[in-house]
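Researcher: Here's the sequence for the chain we discussed earlier.
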Amino acid sequence: MQDDLKKQAAEAAIPYVKNSRIIGVGTGSTVNHFIDLLAPIKHRFEGAVSSSEASTERLQALGIPVFDLNTVGTLDIYVDGADEINSNLELIKGGGGALTREKIIAAASRLFVCIADQSKLVSRLGAFPLPIEVIPMARSYVAREIIALGGHPVWRENFITDNGNVILDIQRLDILEPIKLESTLNNISGVVTVGLFANRSADTVLLASEQGIQTLNL
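Model: Thanks. This is the structure I predict for it:
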């Protein structure tokens, strides 16, 4: 049932991309549905910029060209999922480990459309462990700094990001001020990216439930 809702959310995003020349594409199970839905309309746009090797492979398998963001510049739209969403459209992302490239593409896009099922909408962020991408040599140092902030960091073992770094998943964080926490964590030496998308939140969230699609806008 949840997979059906993910597909419905992905379908709701298609009208948003029909006039885009190059589409920013995220990562994850909901985005996989979105990528598959692009195949029948791929002739309408030039290609995509992808946030992960996995999404790049899926796009290319469908015959959709994938461009480097450096050659494209600003994107009209970026479509991606989320692990948690609050009422301010601030997100936790990075469960799949692609948070750095996702954050870069979101920052480079005029419109960020988030697609998700209703289970991802929460009253307060933090029940889902907050992922942080970290330079490997800084893992222990960053973990100690996070403990000092009241978090419980867990090393995502046997996982290396597409950028060659490691992930710490922070548990037991009650995120009352997402923008402030994002900045605080970003300032720890060795942190590459924080999976809080608060400074650059989503512009539109398409939330699928059994009652249909709910559109949330800033």
